[in-house]
Batch of 4 targets.
Target 1
Amino acid sequence: MSGFPSRRRLLATGAGAALGLGALGAAPASAATATASSTSPRRTGSGAEESRSLDELYQAALAEGGKLVVYAGGDTPTQQDGTKAAFLKAFPGIDLKLIVDYSKYHDVRVDNQFATGTLVPDVVQLQTLQDFTRWKAQGRLLHYSPAGFSKVHEQFKDPQGAWVAIGAIGFSFMYGTAAVGSDAPRTPLDLVDPKWKGKIASSFPHDDDAVLFLYSLYVKHYGWDWVAKLAAQDVRFARGSNSPGEAVGSGQYAIGVGGSGAPLGTGPVKWVLPDSAPFMAWGQRAAILKAAKNSTAAKLYLNWQLSTAVQQNSFSGWSVRTDVTPPTGLKPVWEYRNANVDGFPRFMSDRAEVERLKQTFALYFGEVKGEPTPGVLGLHPGA
């Protein structure tokens, strides 16, 4: 979970360019002088919103030492390069370490650092939504409301400001427009047509919880018989939610399942936003750790991520903010009932059900194989 391109680039190149969960937006060079809050501070459950401008926060972060470490969920070592480049262009002089790994490794890594008194990151932005609820209960998270917090959709923030979503991401299936021609699949049911045998790539559902939730929605709608038919399709399974888009974009496979993309993309890979069939979307949560060494730089980062300039350049076209209008042809992501935005947090909180589904899919598709696509990072990356 290679950095997310800007919305403009994705609309030009399509879902094949979205190789997983990387840069959640790109701010213009003028972001450092933009105002973090254009109005007086609003009261929320976590107190007043940040009233300092991005430039004021930037200067304070430099005075603090100018360092920042972010642990980000993702699939490849370079996936956050776009985010890092945009942030450093706006705020030169900040020493930003943005470490990408699977969220399921980052969260236990942070837990181990808590246990051993060796905490490294200042900010965590992860797909493992249940961890933010747990860490809040443990008193591990700083309650803080960035500028624009009151404009973030209610489903995408903690009322007390313990965490806030900084990007809206959707998972579905995709296809190569040249490979499928006029016979494009429109629903998951189309994927079990024998004509697609040997032409489908998917990320392992029992390796990535977002992909697992997507597959669980397919099971709920189409039954386990659909899974059995898909298992007979000679699907190429691989680790990393970037893998389906890469496989389709390279022309090796016609269809990919279990990856992100841009609904309005016009490139050679079409990410499918179904009319009524299920897909899944969520807000990628971020939080400042209460024990962070660089809390001011962490605040700068969250304010920048939530700024309208960054949110308007969302790779998917969707924003977590209610005052950022999606491009023509899209509704806000929470208005799609088939996106199951409410369902993913509930799903992630039921770890027994998650584990049961993982093992069940292993019976159909075999055990997860392959090295982790971000590499093996050890206990203290970024230290």
Target 2
Amino acid sequence: MNKANYSEVFQFVFLGLSTYRPVQHFLLAFSTVFYVTVVLGNLLVVFTVTLDPHLHSPMYFLLANLSFIDLCLSTLTVPKMISDLYSGHKTISFQGCVIQMFILHILGGSEMVLLIVMALDRYVAICKPLRYLTVMSPKMCLLLLSGAWVIGLIHSAVQLAFVVHLPFCGPNEIDSFYCDLPWFIKLSCTDTYRMEFMVTANSGFISMAVFFLLIVSYIVLLVTVRKHSSGGLSKALSTLSAHITVVVLFFGPCIFIYMWPFPTVPVDKFLAILDFMITPILNPIIYTLRNKDMKMAMRRLSSQLLSSRKVS
């Protein structure tokens, strides 16, 4: 992209979550603690699944990739927010803003598809247990994961292709702590009605459709389990409740931000904290503290580390 196409605005200024200094100090401490927790929690899941051979199954393979995407989503925005709160220098270049949006929608689109794949995995495991390892083979898992990343890339590229060459002549203030399409489009010097519709259609309607598809699929799955085995309902409900919680936490802010992309009350930037700090923490907690295999694997790894230290 040539700078000649960028127009007069070469950087944007983040207004952040608050201009009140004591609140900024609280947000700095809050975001630092939560980001460190996000990194440690998700890396723990990724390394546990990778290093423990007992967890080399489709469900944990997908779970490790979910943790990786959550870690990337949080790392894309939160360290910049922490740096801005600490230094008070809340600017980002035009190119940096475009790159942040591009990666954000790749990760968001990929996680959206990955949650669908995880729902499919649970359906096969619960309703077709004898065929589970055949259907969800390592080759199929890699194919589905690759498809998730490709769809995320296409989703992001299509949106950025429409907005990257918009003219900008000021103002250049973004009422948030990160770059995203609604605020980016709002600052353009041209009529943005079609762009607003494109954002709503591409991100908003897709988010809502996938959300309802997942919720309906989980309900159908629970009904199916209840018909065939009343004893297995409690186990299925325990497993699927974790998935439903993750789906609601991920899609809730997305639906609000993109279905209502230009609200008069700026609550969307506070809802974004759910996707960047809260959900990435809850995912490891939900999938580890409620999962016996994960807890046993962590105990095995910790005992191996302790024994290796004693030997050395």
Target 3
Amino acid sequence: MDVLKQREVWFVIGSQNLYGAETLRQVADHAQTVTDTLNRTAGLPLNIVLKPTGTTIDEITAIARDANHNNACVGVMVWMHTFSPAKMWIPALSQLDKPLLQFHTQFNRDLPWNDIDMDFMNLNQTAHGGREFGFMGARLRLPRTVVVGYWEDKGVHAKIARWMRVASAIDESRSLKIARFGDNMRHVAVTEGDKVEAQIRFGYQVNYHPVGDLVREISAVSVGDIDALLDEYEASYTLTDAVRVGGAHRESLYEAARQELGMRNFLTKGGFGAFTTTFEDLHGMHQLPGLASQRLMAAGFGFGAEGDWKTAALLRTLKVMGQGLPGGTSFMEDYTYHLEEGRNLVLGAHMLEVCPSIAAAKPVLDVQHLGIGKKAPPARLLFAAPAGTGYNASLIDMGNRFRLVVNKLDVVELPQKLPKLPVACALWDPKPNLEVGAEAWILAGAAHHSVFTQALDEEYLRIFADFLGIEFVLIDEQTTIPALKQALQWNEVYYKLCR
């Protein structure tokens, strides 16, 4: 996955012709310096492209219109260097459909105390020019991100980088294709949802694809490609005796490699960024594609088990946001509890499909019996997630809106080995604690499936939700059940009135 290198952000500087040619020349020079410096030294994930200074309605509107139709542009940054009357921005902002960041900065860090005059004041008017622009954003009810601070500060760079990553993920989601191999697990509610509304809101294209079509692609994989992938497995993982050459389950590893190659080919040819499977529809497949799903997630594909297309889509979105950042992101499920007094913990896992991007150490590759699916024992990678801060995110359909529930986690090391557990896992203490965190998660209706990440924090997800107009619910150290219930009630009123 190399999504970020294909994208850019446009930078528009606001001014007006009132100040004359010399002031506009200085504005353009300052904007070029800021752009070049940020691109060179700020460590941003995307390149900033400076556009001509916006001084008239027509100039500004043309830039917004071009941004909408430029495939490389994923968002627009604006900086009011001088005062720029906000009515000039109405047509542009009314039609801009890409994420917007207002950069509230100033070229000079310090006031020139001994030399400051009205020429300096007229040139450096961000302090009130930005407020004029801010009013128009509020008046138009625009979702937007505001970053305040000096343009050379590292903290400012981090906020811009976060917004860039979210903007890239939003852009990618608008054309995200999700292959659904098989349907939803029978009678399960939370993995269902309105696919039409999801395409309207996010851009997600969720369509069914017969397992038979996938099996045909798997069957067409060549022996040479399988052997090459087996060599890659042996170089990347610690293989158990059962799957080494001559081992009792070597055949299952061979078939797992065939599945991975066939699935990758199917997804790549179709332009899919995410997929789902279900153990209730494996006709023609040798085994549940656990190893294939794990490795495809590690390559950047979104995945959801039992037909869970919302989690598959959200996982792909967060994979794009977190590309290149330390820490991994995976499909996850709250599986079972440790309820020792004073030490309540959640063991997260799934039948097989946990992404090795979250592994704390080199994964073990094994084949073991799986008492579900009625197929041959499947291959899987075994590992545990490292200690540190993490988050679980769940995207659910509330009928009249989508809700994104996020729970902050304290991921902990396993207190002892789990020699008989045949799946990858993570162990965490949900914030503020299991009693409140689990109750809040349940009251909010969040799913048993989630996206687990140690690469991103809640602000990425908040920006994502704000731009798309979906409800955002955070469960963290500050959460109390009475406050959460009240917030959910107020949200219910808001979405009935405003959506």
Target 4
Amino acid sequence: MLLAIIFPFLSFLLRGKIITAVLCFILQITVLGWLPAAIWATMSLSNERAEKRNEKLIRAVRESRNHH
């Protein structure tokens, strides 16, 4: 999360989102654009983590239904 705040473009790059990372970097290099870039990267990371949690919960529910 700290990486997404300090180096927003790098957060996207490390997650394999190259085009998004380039766009974020362009936004980040402007003084006024750095804050929106940091917010964008942080929210994107948070959403990705939430999606993974939801997928895990859905799998667990489906497995418990199959066992009963």
